[in-house]
Structures are given as structure tokens and as C-alpha cells.
Amino acid sequence: MADRLAVISLGCSKNLVDSERLMRMMADVGYEVADGADEAFLEGKGRRHVVINTCGFIGDAKEESVNEILSWCEARRNGDIDGLYVMGCLSQRYASELPAEIPEVDRWYGKTDWVNLARDLAAKAPGSAPWDRVITTPRHHAYLKIAEGCNRRCAFCAIPLITGPYRSRPLEEVIEEVRSLVGRGVKEFNVIAQDLTYYGRDIYGTPSIARLVDAIADVEGVEWIRLHYAYPNDFPMDLLDVMARRENVCKYLDIALQHAADSVLSNMNRHITAAETCELLDEMRRRVPGLHIRTTLMVGFPGEGEKEFEELLGFVRSQRFERMGAFAYCEEDDTPAARKYTDSITDEEKQRRLGILMAEQEKISSAIQESKTGKVMKVIIDREEEDYYVGRTEFDSPEVDPEVLVSKTRTLCSGEFYNVRITEAYPFELVGIPVDDEAHQ
After folding, report:
1. How many CB atoms lie within 10 A of CB 288?
2. Distance in angstroms (rounded) separating the CA atoms of residues 418 and 11
3. Which residues, 6 or more positions from 41, have their beta carbon under 8 angstroms from its beta carbon?
């Protein structure tokens, strides 16, 4: 009977892709693999191993990762599992401290040390393609990671300390993966990297994200391409031309802006001003009509007084982002901000500002959602619930954006596209009915 391996993936979608690659490698060397460990995994026969792929980005994520490890340490002591292994951002960042603090873990690995983990467990190296993976998302959509690492060195961010410098994947390898995934039924590709806009500079000497997206769009069977985690400084404007020209590139861009007060942007080491940010956003909307922008903002960074927070709030009111998330600054060990600034703003004040910002965004989101009432929109169905089908438009990324609840007036199939007339709108979901022979608007 084959040994079994459950992979528990914490953190972002980039981590999920790493977990999927590890699962493919372990299946290649003879293991029965599972996405997470349920009762059936624990009670089944054969040796049972668990890998935890950790996140180490911010304090809450680190705490979640440590708690998950400790819970499985107890299972290891009780004999419920036969092996416990940890990989990912947390173990990469704290490689020298964690083994002594949590000795119950059988072995620790870095962020992308999949081959050694597979070799250690099976005593042989996997033979699968380096990009091949198990798909743990619904079969019709997948995350497509095109690079690892980051060169930006924002003052608050520990990711460069964890992942190292930017490393683009060759364009030809990415396209080979896309073709393989299309052959397995994937229609929607959510393109991800720590910084999409830097893609290609390290291996081609010039920004190449527009060329890559154009090439992905050429692959027959690719229905939707959605872009995540752009950076505003030195934005490659030719990407906007591709987004406007290609029908299967979603009018959606995830671009983290962080703040809108010049002094805070300078402290953050973002290399852009508020005026330049507004000019960029104006140009994006001009060149890609109908574009939905998702951004992330931060409150409470050192140097953010009431004046700077009001500038940020005014920026949100004027830009009216279709999608926006925000979080409070948390000092991270060894980052430039931790070395240079004192985190003097209280947690209570950070949370107050965060609440004000998100309340403002909810009003904006409500109005934008309401404007879609009566429109016919192209929707992909993700799943069926008891009372309705659940889908998304091109403006909605899986798990982070609003969903569309589609009435069961006729049978719909998961993974297929339908035209849906929107009948009701709420801040974080739409309601609609399927319609025949009507073009989406």
C-alpha cells in the first residue's frame, strides 16, 4: 500500500501553486497525495505524512502558521501521523530558529525546496516537468505563477528577505504550462507573481509582461486571463494596449498602491508620488475602457498623521476603486522600516483608521455594484448551492471578489460560461438570472 501525503497550504495563491507542484512531485514518486488532511486521511491504512506550506508575510499569518504546526505536532506525538514536514515562507525566513523551538517536526525545508523533500521521502528524485502540478482549485480555473522573488525593496515588506531577487520563468515554459492546463480543462488563468510588471527584465533585459500576456491569449482554449499584483512605478504601458485589444484578457488589474500621501510613500520607499499615481490610474482607465482596478492600501505606517490619513481617504473617495482591500501596518523584523522608524501609532488608532477607510469603500462598492443592475454579464459558474448557482464575472477574481448568485431557472453546468441579467446588487455580491441569446454588456 502506497504511503500517503497530505499538503496543508497556508497564505497566498503563490503558495498554493507551490503546494500543487509538490503534490505532483510526490505523486510522481509513488505517494498518494491529498489536498489537506481530513478524517479519511487520518483513519486510512498505510503511512501518513503531513506537509505544512507556511506563510511568513505578516504577524497574523506567522501566528496562523505556527499554530497549525503545533496542532500537527500533537498529532505526531499521538501517533496519528507518521511524519511531519514544514516548508514555505516561515521556515525559509526562520530556518535557524524554528528547528530548536519545535523539535517535533521531522524536517524543515525552504520555500521552493520541493525536489529535496520528494527525494528525502521517497529516496528518488521526481521525474515530472518542473511546472507540472495537481490542480486543487475547481478544474476550470488555475493560478499561473510566472516569477518568484522581488526586487522592489519596499520599506515595510519582508518578502524580498524570504524569496530573494526576482526570477522570471522563461516565456516558452509558461506557455507550455498553459497549453498543458488547457488540455486538462482549465479555461480561466489568474496570472500571479509578487510583481507582474517586472517580468522579463532579468532574463530578457526589458519588461516583457505585455509580450507574455499576448502569447497566453493566443493559446486556443484560454477564455479568461486575469492579472494580479502589478506595481505602479515604471509600469509597462504596452500592457494596457494588450488588455484593450485582446478579448480574453479580463478588464481587471490588481495593483497594490499602499498609500497616497507623498511623505508616506517616500517613507515606504515606493518610488512614486501621489500625483504620478493619479496620472497612471487616469491613463489606465482611458486606455482600457471598463477597467476594474483592485488595489491594497495600508494605514498606520510610520509618518502617517491625521493629515496624511485624510489624504489617503480623499484619494479613495476620488478614485472610486471597484475593488479595494486594506490592512494596518505591522512591523516586520529586519525590514528597512523596522530598522529606521519607530512604530508609534497605537493598534487602536490603526484599527480606527482602517474602519473609516473600509466603511468609505463599502459605500463606493455599493454604488458600483448597483450600476450593474439590469446589465447582461458573462458569468462563469463555479459551483452549485441548494438555492442557486454561484459564479463570477471577468471583474471578479476567485475567493477575493464578489460573486454572482444565479437563479435556478434552468440547469447550468460548473465551468461553463453563461449570459446573466443582473437583477439585484449588494456590496459584495450580485444576483441574476440566466438569459438566452443576449450579448453581455
Report:
1. 21
2. 31
3. 4, 6, 34, 48
CB atoms within 10 A of CB 65: 24
Strands 48-54, 4-9: pairing is parallel
- Does this model's pTM top 0.90? My answer is yes
Is residue 440 over pLDDT 70?
no
**351 within 8 A of 328, measured Cβ to Cβ:** yes
348 contact partners, CB below 8 Å, separation of at least 6: none
Give the torsion through C-alpha atoms of 224, 228, 234, 238, to 10 deg.
Answer: 0
The sign of the dihedral angle between the CA atoms of 106, 110, 111, 112 is negative
Instruction: Provide the phi-psi class of 341: left if phi over 0, else alpha when psi is between -120 and 50, else beta.
Output: beta
CB atoms within 10 A of CB 364: 17
pLDDT in tens, 149-207: 999 999 999 989 889 999 999 999 999 999 999 999 999 999 999 999 999 999 999 99
CA-CA-CA-CA dihedral for 97, 100, 106, 107, to nearest 10:
30
